[in-house]
Amino acid sequence: MPPKKTVAKKVKSDYGAQQIQVLEGLDPVRKRPGMYIGSTGPRGLHHLIWEVMDNSFDEAMAGHGDIITLRLLPDNMISVEDNGRGIPVDKHPQFKVSALELVLTKLHAGGKFGGGGYKVSGGLHGVGVSVVNALSTYLKAEVRREGKLWEQEYKIGKPQKPVKEVGKARGTGTRITFAPDASIFETTEFDLKTILDHLRQQAYLTKAVKIVVVDERVEGDSRGYAFYFEGGVASYVRHLNHGKSPKHKNVFYVSKHDEDADMDVEVALQYTDEYHESVHCFANNITNPDGGTHLIGFRSALTRELNNYARSKNILKEKDKNLTGEDVREGLTTIISVKIKEPQFEGQTKSKLGNPEARTAVESIFGESFRIYLEEHPRDAEGIIGKCLLAAQARRAARAARDTVLRKGALDGLTLPGKLSDCSSRNPEDSEIFIVEGDSAGGSAKQGRNRENQAILPLRGKILNVERARLDKMLANNEIKSLVIALGTNIGEGFDIEKLRYDRVVIMTDADVDGAHIRTLLLTLFFRYFPALITEGHIYIAQPPLYRVNIGKSFRYAYSEEQKEAAIEELIANSAKGKKAKAAKVEKEASSSEAGDVESEAEIQEVSGVKVNIQRYKGLGEMNPDQLWDTTMNPATRLMKRVEIEDAEKANETFEVLMGAEVAPRKKFIQTHAKTVKNLDI
After folding, report:
1. Which of 270, 331, 465, 497 is deepest in the core (most CB within 10 A)?
2. Confidence label for 53 from pLDDT (cuts 50, 70 and 90)
3. pLDDT of res. 648
4. Which of 127-131, 296-300, 394-398, 514-518 has the highest mean pLDDT?
């Protein structure tokens, strides 16, 4: 059933060329595109769409327009159309050219900087659509205003003709069509899933606005998607908690305007039986991964109101200590969205909101509404308080367990017999620790390492899945206990990254199913309890080779099937020429004993009349210390992947699916992605 037509609220405002103010020119964009869109990789490419879409969302937030349509066209082109007021086309009084041309050719030119264009707006510091124009080989702007259709075309940011009237038009709105410049971007192929995920989130944050996505890239196969949410961020919370077990039936939701701060505040929350907090903050639809003043205001009110309610109902006795912020946030899923006239952000990426009035507004509006909600929904309140009390009990047990672990570490001098083989350097910047699977690989790693700056911590078996365990249970696990002591940062509320003993923490597991499982368990541990180690670039994954290919005494290490085939071809070619082979990655003359070891386990193939020895490494333990050093641990020759988080919300959702207690979502995930898995060992 199609959504009910929402009539946009008419906001009285003069919106013409006089509202367009210009701050600087456009030339620097092509020289340093990363400064404006973050990168020239896939993330930066998709950021072009977000910037054009932001203009349409700004119109919707201002009360103009309720439908935004994005089309993916052939030849990597994008079209975005809205039914807002349309970008002004009349001449600007100062610059004597069309306001449309100013918006598309000047940085910081737009209605966001004037006194009457927009009450609230998003975008990337107002540079939006002009940056898209500068980084596109072609852009066409079409505007419907006052019954007329206007258009202008551009190439690499340069107008090809003045803005001109090309016909009549019904209604109002803007359509921007652009083709990103392949000489700027690593790829110009847009990913539909990335687009749908982002726009679904924006639809939750802009309730009662319909977003349509049409994929027309394949001729004769047009696919359409639509998002429309009357419930706003309350619908978003239900989406995030899909597949989880809620502790109370009703999603708390409030949406109010704060007159003093001239700010709209929208908050939704629900508790589940999870052990981790999932909080998402937005200001003017821009995500703030580092929170800010609106998050501070929310947390202050949440802790206060739950303690007041628990004491008023005599759930917390006089002798009992108050619930802490950590207690009341366990298992909490929250969306905090504010619409503010002049947002103050920290950093170019707007990761943190700094407006002090946002704290006061959120604390006041949320606190009052949540207090009423608890009184009017006693069953929900009972479920929430019960969850918080259980978390408090677990926190006290975890603190005792953590103190025990740290005392043990101090007594042992951080030298764990049979486990940690520490490095001699005490300078964290020069040091790295390899977390190795099993004693066999651990033995090779200990013998092959550089003892000065490389520490080895072998794991015996698989560590606990921390997605399904609280901190007290985690610290009873010997492998996790050893790791916490070795890192030196403490864990939980006592975590201090300044005490990290190694700059690089390297996960080094076998290239098989068990190795992948152990790697996932470790990544879950770091994501949930040491997130700063990931965000600050300390976590790495070692890349041991899959194959060793040799003809005679010449050999190559191959890290993929493709490299293996290339190595065979190269060695055969060199053998035929009678030349000594040169290593692509790591190579040396094999000793007779080493060559014998390799040949004893190698598969012998005859290719073009030449015998080729191919050894498939199933585990790190199959390599002798020299081989492990050369291929995987030597900084001069090794390959390592640094773990980064591009989308914290998506990462959180993926860990919950893969490592959580619910089987059905995990089964669906595996079935969906099974065909894309490569090199799977059964």
Report:
1. 270
2. very high
3. 65
4. 296-300
- Per the annotation, the verdict on 437 as an active-site residue is yes
Q: Which of 287, 295, 268, 278 is nearest to 197 (CA)?
A: 287
Q: Is 514 a catalytic residue?
A: yes
Which range among 386-395, 577-586, 647-656 has the greatest average pLDDT?
Answer: 386-395
Instruction: List C-alpha distances in Å: 170 to 10, 144, 165, 597.
Output: 18, 7, 14, 79
Q: Is the pLDDT of residue 410 over 70?
A: no
pTM value surpassing 0.85: no
DSSP 344-402: -EETTTT-EE--HHHHHHHHHHHHHHHHHHHHH-HHHHHHHHHHHHHHHHHHHHHHHHH
Catalytic choice (510, 630, 653, 656):
510
In sequence order, which residues have a C-beta less than 8 Å from that of residue 579 and are 6 or more positions away? Answer: none
The C-alpha R_g of the chain, in whole angstroms, comes to 29
Q: Identify the active-site residue in 258, 437, 622, 630.
A: 437
Can you tell me the distance from the alpha carbon of 624 to that of 604, in angstroms, rounded to the nearest whole number?
20
Options 151, 326, 382, 512, the catalytic residue = 512
Domains of the chain from N-terminus onward: 17-227 (3.30.565.10), 233-385 (3.30.230.10), 412-543+642-676 (3.40.50.670), 547-616 (no CATH)
CB 304 within 8 A of CB 324: no
Strand 454-459, strand 432-437: pairing: parallel
Catalytic residue among 151, 153, 514, 626: 514
**In the block, which residue shows the tokens 């992948």?**
516
**Residue pLDDT, tens place only, 180-202:** 999 999 999 999 999 999 999 99
